[in-house]
Write a structure and sequence with these properties.
Elements: H1 2-10, H2 13-20, H3 24-38, E1 43-46, E2 49-52, H4 54-78, E3 86-91, H5 95-107, E4 114-119, H6 122-130, E5 136-141, H7 146-156, E6 158-166, E7 169-173, E8 194-197, E9 220-223, H8 226-235, E10 240-242, E11 254-258, E12 265-272, H9 279-295
Parallel strand pairs: 3-4, 3-5, 8-9
Antiparallel strand pairs: 1-2, 5-12, 6-12, 7-10, 7-11
Helix pairs in contact: 1-2, 1-4, 2-3, 5-9
Length: about 300
């Protein structure tokens, strides 16, 4: 399992052998014997290198949990860290997810670790979790996307767990002409630029990160990151639509105003079915719940 993990991590037999201090023939033979015993191809070999198969991804997810458990036992009784903790999250552009990730990093007691936070497109979040590149995904469901996304979750054997539900809010600058309103109707936004997150090649409406799709607006700007989103919201009197949770984390100059839209946003996590979450994953979800409760 350790050898297979190293090959998957470094993508090279030679580099993996160097990292685990064995010869290349020894490592290659060990992987071949493991695949024969499991009657499963963990890797595919080609002139372009080594890649992990779908069955290999499932095996590695379980193997890494066992390696982490063994490392914790060894560390407890020897006082030495024998494995670098690993944790990866893929999420839509939620400030509370970033803050929760920071809490996990700060609480991590290891001298070395390998953590990843990806703010990315909806389709990549699903693919990351399904392909075992991330342990947890964070995204939202609504009446517009629930049915197609739940079909994808079922096909990929993913489980959605709600963190909170909320009505849509408009995020805009404090100096925006609509910032002091108690609520905003969609038609009142017609003259202002609508900022949304670009979804790459997957442009189906149900992958949109915003509950109010861009096709409903006449002025559209698509961006990739939260910093750009914030700058354009403030600099162009633009707006975006989100859950309303943790609005100040974007920027103190940003406010959220309820949107008069008959819709509910359900924000939650996705994870692989039947896989026990790591302690980092449990801490991450707990931190998100605390931050959400504190901001509502």
């Amino acid at each position: 399992m350790k050898y297979a993990d190293a090959v998957a991590t470094y993508g090279s037999i030679s580099e993996a052998a160097r990292r685990v201090f064995v010869t290349q023939p020894t490592l290659t033979e060990s992987i071949r014997a493991l695949e024969e015993e499991l009657r499963t191809a963990i890797f595919t070999r080609s002139a372009r290198g080594i890649t992990v198969t779908r069955e290999g991804e499932e095996f590695l997810a379980s193997a890494r949990q066992i390696l982490d458990d063994a490392a914790r036992i060894a560390e407890k009784y020897t006082g030495k860290a024998v494995r670098r903790p690993q944790f990866s999250v893929s999420c839509q552009h939620f400030a509370f997810a970033t803050d929760a990730f920071m809490e996990v990093v700060k609480a991590n007691g290891a001298d070395a670790y390998d953590f990843t936070l990806r703010e990315t497109t909806t389709s990549e979040i699903i693919d990351d979790v399904a392909r075992h590149r991330s342990e947890i995904g964070v995204l939202y469901l609504s009446s517009r996307n629930r049915t197609p996304l739940e079909k994808i979750f079922k096909k990929e054997e993913l489980v959605f767990e709600e963190l909170f539900s909320a009505n849509p809010h408009v995020f805009l600058g404090r100096k925006h002409p609509l910032a002091r309103k108690k609520f905003i109707r969609p038609e009142e936004l017609d003259d202002y630029p609508y900022l949304s997150y670009e979804q790459g090649v997957e442009n189906a409406l149900y992958f949109a990160e915003e509950v109010m799709p861009a096709i409903d607006r006449k002025k559209n700007i698509r961006v990739r990151d939260r910093a750009t989103m914030t700058n354009l919201v403030l600099g162009l009197d633009g707006f975006t639509v989100a859950s309303g949770v943790h609005a100040k984390a974007y920027n103190p100059a940003i406010v959220s105003v309820p949107l008069k839209l008959d819709e509910t946003i359900s924000v939650g996590t996705i994870r692989r079915a039947g896989i026990q979450p790591s302690k980092q994953a449990e801490a991450f979800v707990a931190a998100m719940r605390r931050l959400i409760a504190a901001s509502r």
